[in-house]
Amino acid sequence: MSSRRPSTLMRLSAALVLLIACKSTPASGPTTAPTDGGATAPDAKTDAPLQSAFAYPASRKGDTVDTYHGAQVADPYRWLEELDSDETRAWVDAQNKLTFDVLGKIGARDKIRARLTELWNYERYGVPSKEGGKYFYSRNDGLQNQSVLYVADSLGAEPRVLLDPNALSQDGTVALSGMAVSRDGKHMAYGLASAGSDWQEFRVRDIKTGRDLPDLVQWVKFSGPSWTADGKGFFYSRYDAPKEGEALKGKNEFQKLYYHKLGTTQADDVLVYERKDQPKWGFGGEVSDDGRWLVIRVWEGSADKNAVFVQDLKAGVGKVPVQELLSKFDAEYNFVGNTGSTLYFQTTKDAARGKLVAIDVSKKDASDPATWKTIVPEAPETLRGVSHVGGRLVASYLKDARSQVKVYSLAGKLERELELPGLGTAGGFGGRAKDTETFYAFTSYTWPTTVFRYDLKTGKSEVFRQPKVAFDPTKYETTQVFYTSKDGTKVPMFLTAKKGLERTGQNPTYLYGYGGFNVPLTPGFSVPDLMWLELGGVLAVANLRGGGEYGEAWHEAGTKLHKQNVFDDFIAAAEYLVAEKITSPGKLAIGGRSNGGLLVGAAMTQRPDLFAVALPGVGVMDMLRFHKFTIGWAWVADYGSSDDAEQFKALRAYSPLHNLKPGTRYPATMVYTADHDDRVVPGHSYKFAAALQAAQAGDKPTLIRIDVRAGHGAGKPTSKQIDEWTDLWGFVAQNLGMTVP
Known about the structure:
The protein is an alpha+beta fold. 18% of the residues lie in helices and 32% in strands.
């Protein structure tokens, strides 16, 4: 959490339009060892694999048939898209009753829940930020549903609670979704989201008194606040209030950029920019460090190509027209900082793996790339972020999907490379141009997220907060391997397991992937992963095409007509694990969420023989209709659309819903979703589960777990995460015949 990383917020505004690769909560781990009273408890063998000798709830088959480019496609479960109908609600209740009845019979489930709770109960911190001489950071004492935001007058001072989201709802489903502190440190604009929804509302808190002002801003989505330098107000983007029923079903179009002045109502907000001729454009406004420029990131869908407009704030908000600086949508442009009229941008323009350029916006030909100055040229590594802090440029790279951080002068001279603790992920590095310090976090699969203070003058790092954990990381090791995909492409994969793993082909293995939207999967610590390792499992994370590990070319190789590459990469990862005798098809489970849920659905329908268990979470399962719900239209940049004849053929060829074949023996499957998911609407999972239950010919269970009062994953309370992973790991252990100690 940072009060001043607006460039990060702007990228998040666009990233939220796509599907976040929400695997499990990072920065999670144990604080207490398991207690056994001095004696060794006997192992608890899970019951025999569950049989499908029970009747699934009835799923009515309708007669809906759509015609796509001359091809007729049946959609018998279309009625399950009507989320609020009595019939759908009755179906949800019946499916949940069956699922939880079955889960309740898993003998080791209580042991898994108890250990997950122990592991999750440890103190953890967010990365601090500094504004107005004050420090702001989050802290969770262990089992709090939501982390609490604190403020301190100095790093060594006793912090006080600034905002406790846990006090806002009994079940912990109200979450802090973003915040920004005014330059003088007097006010905080913050967003709240309920039940996992993407919708937010902004409020303003007086930092000295801890009380909220009357200010209220509603109907915000995919946006964060950015204060003007004088602290009198902030920029934000919002949609018009949706009509009744549109929150889950309607398309969110016509986002507009506004300025809210403190002490006024939302009706008085100044409309800064809108484009009625471009209903799918979205806007993210950020004020430059010196307060001079409003830099507007213009995005359309989830494509990693955006425009940049600027407005001179010297005369005040809205006093001069918006200047369309970069309007071609020909590359990715992320604002980093400025020196006077020279603005720094991280871009993929003529650099697939990214570079940093300087643009003098005072020049008439500023939009011409020939006038730009390259500060940090493209490197063999993939540039993922740059901060302008302490008079320097801190550049974060990915080298084979793990972090590498370099510090440059403003002229682009390399000063040093940070020495990180090991193979892992580093993030943070926020601050202002005049700061002398910054903060970052480091994490890996067996390294709980640790927060460091970095001295920008000396280049030295020191621990600010390090979790006290009660597990021994020396028992585990992470290695990186490279395997060959179907077309000969080399793909990296991280393997984490107990040291001395014997390659018997019988190790329970969980293969996880994502492969989309330029999102990289990098090493990170999570309680669910640790639980799996303690169960004796092998954790395999494949860095598939479609992700952001190797730049835009790697991303594009897994999009639209090339999307099958992603599934080929994932299947090849599984085949590698089997060939290397790490596991076998009877001991292999696969999982993924969101776009990763699509990945699991496609893999299990293409190669049902290769996997024993499948966990598709909040997935995009109907690839012919995904663009008709909420923000789904924005994913066309990655997926393509059934409205296009050629893309329709590609989508139909792998769409999980449309490739289930009756009479097939599918893996034991637990689909999981949430009834308030307004990003990937639960109708995707409902329809897939109904069709899978009808198609399953084997004796493996086919269940769907539907979380109530939950959304896509962001802001999910700790208690709900423990519940979810208890059920997921219980289901996997049951169907892999694992022994739970």
